[in-house]
Amino acid sequence: MNKEDILARSRHENHDEIYEYIDNKALTIASGIFILMCLLMLAFSFMSTIQNEMIYTTLSLLWSYLSIYCFARYYYLKSKIYIIIGFIVLLLASYSIVQVWLMIW
């Protein structure tokens, strides 16, 4: 293949690396802010009169996010530590969701 063939193929592809780079950066920033907000909500829950409700709802969001993150890392990296951590965090998420469910009913 010569240079012109490679450039022609590259122009016909819909894959643009800048969008992938921006998505990765945005996901990193959004994940950090989400975790920071969950930690702030946990800190604020200790100052609230409805402490149990705030703790379990915040923890259910945090644990759910972290379990999905670990399972995705396992899927792509095939490292067993991520599947183990993912299941542990999934159990914590399930416990938090059950606690929220019991408070509602």
Summarize the structure.
By secondary structure, the protein is mainly alpha-helical. 87% of the residues lie in helices and 0% in strands. The protein has helices spanning 3-12, 17-45, 51-77, 80-104.
Q: What does this molecule look like?
A:
The structure is a single chain. With 105 residues, this protein is mainly alpha-helical. The protein has one domain (3-104). It is 87% helix and 0% strand. The protein has 4 helices and no strands. Helix 2 runs antiparallel to helix 3 (51-77). The longest helix is centred in the N-terminal third of the chain and has 29 residues, at 17-45. The N and C termini lie far apart (68 Å).
Number of strands: 0
H/I helix tally: 4
User: How large is the radius of gyration?
Assistant: 21 Å
Query: What is the average of the pLDDT values?
Result: 85
What order do the SSEs take from the amino end to the carboxyl end, as H and E?
HHHH
End-to-end Cα distance: 68 Å
Largest sheet: none
Large-scale geometry: elongated
The number of domains: 1
Spans of at least 5 consecutive residues whose pLDDT stays below 50 are: none
Helix vs. strand class: mainly alpha
Which percent range fits the helix content?
A: over 70%
Which range does the strand content fall in?
Answer: under 5%
